[in-house]
Amino acid sequence: MVTGQWYPQGSANPSSAQLYLAKNGTHYIIEVHHKIQYQAELTSLKLSDRLGNVERKISLEDGSVFASKDNDGIDAIFKSNKHATHLLHRLESNITWVFIALIITILTLFSIFKWGIPAASETIAYSLPHKANQLIASGTLSLLDDYLFEESNLPPEQRAKIRQHFKDKLISLSNSDETIEYKLHFRLWYLWLI
After folding, report:
1. At the topology level of CATH, where does 2-84 sit?
2. With a threshold of 0.85, does the pTM exceed it?
3. Residue 111 has what pLDDT?
4. Quick one: pLDDT at residue 162?
5. Distance between CA atoms of residues 149 and 142, nearest Å
6. Which H helix or E strand runs over 98?
């Protein structure tokens, strides 16, 4: 016998109830207030998966629900039924599978951050039109200028030297698109360490 609560269809008002396995082993009996309310084949019931000690719900054909926290009792009743062992419950009850799932989760998250996000970012960046990249860049620079950066203290001669090096050595390495115009901006950023 499994003790639980019976909820009529469309109602949240429970009544105390008991679930029995009939003598033939293939039928169930549900008594509500010690009166037989339901009697039919076990296969007509829809049983929720077992997950830890969470209350199990058994849906009846008329839409009513029998709920109980006696998971072992429910498993005993349904042992000959297809619901007897649920994959989710078997996995969470086995420490080896829990450890394997944890390792897989960690490896998956690591892979997403190490390779997935950079690959997606690169794909998105190269698929955006050049004008969109310029708008994003100018908006980002304006925001940083407002809150983090100040005017650079570098002398004009040093700035000119750095610009020339940037133009001669770096742009020529990556400029496959002649329509892109690179600009080098000089800013001062104080990194305050607390």
Report:
1. PH-domain like (2.30.29)
2. no
3. 95
4. 92
5. 10
6. helix 95-111
Q: Shortest CA distance to 61 belongs to which of 76, 48, 43?
A: 43
* 154 burial type by CB count under 10 A (0-12 exposed, 13-18 middle, 19+ buried): middle
37's enclosing H/E stretch is strand 35-41
Within a 10 A sphere around the Cβ of 62, how many other Cβ atoms?
8
For 14, 158, 189, the CA distances from 143, given in Å and listed in that order, are 58, 26, 13
CA distance 18 to 28: 10
| pLDDT under 50: residue ranges of the chain | 82-85, 193-194
Q: Comparing C-alpha atoms, which of 51, 62, 71 is closest to residue 4? A: 71
Task: Report pLDDT digits (tens) over 18-67.
Answer: 888 888 877 888 888 878 888 888 888 888 877 777 888 988 888 899 99
Task: Compute the distance between CA of residue 150 and CA of residue 148 in angstroms, rounded to an integer.
Answer: 7
Residues in the chain: 194
User: What are the φ/ψ torsions at residue 47 (nearest 5 degrees)?
Assistant: -105, 130
